[in-house]
Amino acid sequence: MRVFTNPLARMLPLFKWQTQVYRLAEKFPPGLSDGYAPIWEVVPFTLTARTTQQARVNVQREFHLLALGGSATVTTNGGFRAQLYDQKKKRRFADRGVGFNVLTGPGGKLFFLREPYPLTEESAQILVVCQNLETSTNTVQILLYGVARRFNFPA
Q1: For residue 135, which of 23, 71, 84, 89 sits 20 to 30 Å off, Cα-Cα?
Q2: Is the pTM for the entire model greater than 0.90?
């Protein structure tokens, strides 16, 4: 059985790894052998100076969000700030908007969540609100990485 583990887990202190990585004791964790497949959802924005835009992302059934990422063409004043909402549960992913540097991680890598966030409701959606912090036009891409049931997997 395959279990998704955080690739940064080897960098953690020896005795804290159980609390700082994914829940490894789930009875049926999402894995590629049981009908789940990796999904990349990219949300592009073209923002003029100091503007905000929204986008809704319809995710496949039984989607589990594992990581976030992002990129921007202009990052001199902080790039952008993003806020993500779970539309079905009426839940914010963070109390306030997450800045470009936190969302992209060190060196532009993915920001892995501590544990997968399940979006298992019927017709689940993620609302992405992106705010440009620059004084010029900025092209932003926000990446949502996770696993979801294949569309042809028997129900």
Answers
A1: 84
A2: no
